[in-house]
Amino acid sequence: MKLASFDVTAETGTERRIGVYNKETDELIDVTATYAQALADEGEGSPREVAAAHAPTDMVDFLSRSDRAMDAAQRALEYINETNATTGLDETTLRYDTADVTLLSPVPRPNSIRDYMVMAEHVENVFDDIPEPWYDLPVYYKGDADCIGHPGQDIEWPSYSEKMDYELELAAVLGKKGRDISADEADEYIAGYTIYNDLSARDMQFEEMEVNLGPSKGKDFIGSNVFGPYLVTPDEIELEEVEMKARVNGEEWSSGTLGAMQHSFADMIEHTSQSQYLYPGDVLGSGTVGMGCGLEMDKYLERGDTIELEAEGIGTLTNTLVDE
After folding, report:
1. Is the pLDDT assigned to residue 13 strictly greater than 80?
2. DSSP 288
3. CA angle 101-104-107, nearest 5°?
4. 31-41 vs 67-83: helix axis angle to the nearest 10?
5. How does pLDDT run across 186-209, given as a tens digit for each residue?
């Protein structure tokens, strides 16, 4: 399945929704509302309450419901394909054309963000000498989970930077709580994958890291962690074979796959969960694919540039850098 978070305008104001993508009609099916209607048709006495409990409209809460939420999304998709219904209880809209909604990051406010550096070619291009611990440890930094960028959003160029860069990555989103998770069990904790544009203010990043801390403001500014457009469940994707591309103003700058990962997402989960809980809504970034950023090419973004990151089976994540 492909899941999305989006906002709709209702009588009470803007409301958050979770949609499951229907590839047959290029629509998003409102999971909670459609599941409620399916339950009502089956004779459930409290369909709205059950649907809200099994499939809440906030993605972190949704993922916390684990299989119940995923089953509700699958049932919603099946219900639409069976009935071709357009409205549900109280004439609630069940189906939205993707062109008529504003997509948000699949997880609009992640529980946490950790970004790793596991792609061999990228590391070789960045370091003159690869640090020995890199071969053994999937090291990471923590991003600001409040600095989220959304598909199609204009991202403000940070006032303190003159050297902006994109990073072509994928991210795993966790769907279960756990600690001390073995690599053999780790895949069970991944709810899905999405595209990650780890925007970077390189000049600030380099300055900060001279004191062996950071990145901090090199990575943390409004909209700097861009995710989307969809969260794709693991059964629909061959992760290491996903073709990825980056385009700037329509010109291809980067391409690659995750086939050369020194450490897998399972390794990341095993390492990170030692003596620590991981939670639904935690995001783990793959790190940049080889030649997947301007730093590796000494080629940087300019104000007004439009960046498109594309990943086969997930979609295209598009943003434009604008002045404040």
Report:
1. no
2. P
3. 140
4. 70
5. 999 999 999 999 999 999 999 999
Q: Which residues pair with 201 in a beta bridge?
A: 164
Residues in the chain: 324
Q: How far is CA 131 from its chain centroid?
A: 29
Which range has the worst mean pLDDT, 8-12, 288-292, 297-301?
8-12
- Can you give the pLDDT at residue 128? 80
Six-digit token string for 117: 């550096």
CB-based contact 236:1 (threshold 8 Å)? yes
Task: Name which of 93, 90, 82 is nearest 34 in CA terms.
Answer: 93
Nearest residue to 150 (alpha-carbon basis) of 31, 7, 20, 304: 7
CB contact burial 271-287 (16+ within 10 A = b; e otherwise): bbbeeeebbbbbbbbbb
What is the predicted pLDDT for the residue at 129?
85
Question: In angstroms, what CA-CA distances link 115 with 10, 45, 153, 236, 299?
Answer: 36, 45, 21, 23, 22
**C-beta atoms surrounding 292 within 10 Å:** 28
Q: Which residue has the tokens 């990051």?
A: 105
Place of tokens 């972190």: 60
Pairing of strands 282-285, 112-116: parallel
As a whole number of angstroms, the distance between CA 80 and CA 184 comes to 36
Q: Which domains does the chain have, with CATH numbers?
A: 2-103 (2.30.30), 107-322 (3.90.850.10)
CA gap 230, 228 in Å, rounded = 5
Other Cβ atoms within 10 Å of 178 Cβ, number: 18
Token reading at 32: 């909670």
Phi, psi at 81, each rounded to 5°:
-70, -30
* CB-CB contact of 256 with 167 (8 Å): no
Q: Which helix (H) or strand (E) holds 245?
A: strand 244-248
Average pLDDT over residues 84-100: 95
Main-chain phi, psi angles of 27, to 5 degrees: -125, 160
